[in-house]
């Protein structure tokens, strides 16, 4: 079994995990049910550590890993989950769901890639199929934006959740054009040097993943939400200051127990590259305005960016309270 196959199998096993173990000696109220529309991998290690820290502070965090961001968002809207992870801008505007983003977890850091046996540059993708993470995701927005910038139109957009899955599909020849994360980029360069070309993207400043919740949940569970936000921001700052701390966090909280040696070896290089882009202040109003600019251009949001109101998409109550406590970076 090759390296990628082992990574994918370990990721699939990790995806089945539910982080619901209570901390001994603490009495919990209702659990905080988080829906994550992806699989648990090295890329989510710092988030898993932050959730463990929230548990230590008395929040009964329960995470369910789902097939896609769409399903995670539906779980939040329907009340089956309290908090979702993803980028629900289109859902907020088009469905007017009673949810709000309250914390930016990551910014877009992706690499459009093609199999050079078939394509060499953006114009070669005119009339061709591309694969992205999920409907309404940042990966879809990037690919739509680049199609517009390069005057092309895809024949179809297929949805393949998980950057590692898309990376594997490229190596196996099942996908010819897609978009991967930094880990996938390193795998492609190592496993098949010269076979794939990474297309120019230019500067992109927008949210990749964020935390969002029903407005009712945010107002009724403000203390727990603030604990969650603080746990995440302090973890982000720790990893940004020392990317090697991610390995120590994994060991401390016994995270990703089924990770292969190859996955463990990828932790340091992944966070060395990702750490400088971590949003240390949770995004907030500035992130929302960047998102309006990006997602209106890409088509995920309708209207003029200047006309969109932050309060229609974000609830900054918990974030502002936490920043007042721990300061800004």
From TrEMBL:
Principal location: periplasm
Aminoacyl-tRNA synthetase listed as a keyword: no
SsuA/THI5-like domain boundaries: 55-246
The keyword Membrane is assigned to this record: no
Signal peptide: 1-29
Gene3D superfamilies linked to this entry: Periplasmic binding protein-like II (3.40.190.10)
Subcellular location: Periplasm
Keyword annotations: Signal
Cellular component annotations (GO), alphabetically ordered: periplasmic space
PANTHER family linked to this entry: ALIPHATIC SULFONATES-BINDING PROTEIN-RELATED (PTHR30024), TAURINE-BINDING PERIPLASMIC PROTEIN (PTHR30024:SF47)
Family as reported in the entry's similarity comment: Belongs to the bacterial solute-binding protein SsuA/TauA family.
Protein name: NitT/TauT family transport system substrate-binding protein
Organism of origin: Shinella granuli
């Amino acid at each position: 079994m090759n390296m990628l196959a082992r990574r994918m199998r370990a990721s699939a096993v990790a995806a089945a995990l539910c982080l619901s173990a209570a901390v001994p000696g603490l009495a919990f109220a209702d659990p905080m049910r988080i829906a994550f529309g992806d699989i648990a991998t090295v890329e989510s290690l710092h988030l898993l550590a932050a959730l463990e820290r929230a548990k230590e502070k008395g929040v009964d965090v329960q995470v369910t890993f789902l097939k896609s961001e769409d399903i995670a968002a539906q779980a939040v809207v329907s009340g089956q989950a309290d908090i979702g992870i993803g980028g629900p801008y289109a859902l907020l505007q088009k469905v007017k769901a009673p949810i709000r983003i309250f914390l930016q977890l990551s910014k877009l850091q992706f690499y459009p890639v093609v199999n050079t046996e078939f394509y060499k540059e953006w114009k070669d993708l005119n009339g061709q199929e591309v694969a992205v993470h999920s409907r309404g995701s940042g990966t879809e927005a990037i690919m739509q934006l680049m199609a517009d910038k390069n005057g092309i139109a895809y024949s179809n957009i297929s949805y393949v959740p998980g950057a590692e899955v898309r990376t594997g599909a490229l190596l196996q020849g099942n996908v010819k054009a897609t978009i991967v994360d930094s880990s996938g980029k390193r795998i492609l360069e190592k496993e098949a040097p010269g076979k794939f070309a990474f297309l120019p993207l230019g500067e992109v400043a927008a949210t990749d993943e964020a935390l969002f919740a029903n407005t009712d949940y945010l107002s009724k569970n403000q203390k727990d939400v603030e604990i969650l936000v603080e746990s995440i921001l302090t973890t982000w700052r720790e990893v940004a200051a020392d990317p090697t701390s991610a390995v120590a966090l994994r060991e401390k909280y016994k995270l990703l127990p089924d990770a292969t040696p190859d996955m463990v070896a990828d932790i340091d290089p992944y966070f060395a590259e990702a750490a400088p882009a971590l949003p240390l202040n949770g995004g907030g109003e500035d992130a929302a305005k960047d998102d309006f600019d990006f997602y209106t251009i890409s088509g995920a949001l309708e209207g003029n960016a200047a006309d969109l109101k932050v309060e229609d998409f974000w609830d900054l109550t918990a974030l502002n309270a936490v920043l007042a406590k721990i300061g800004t970076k």
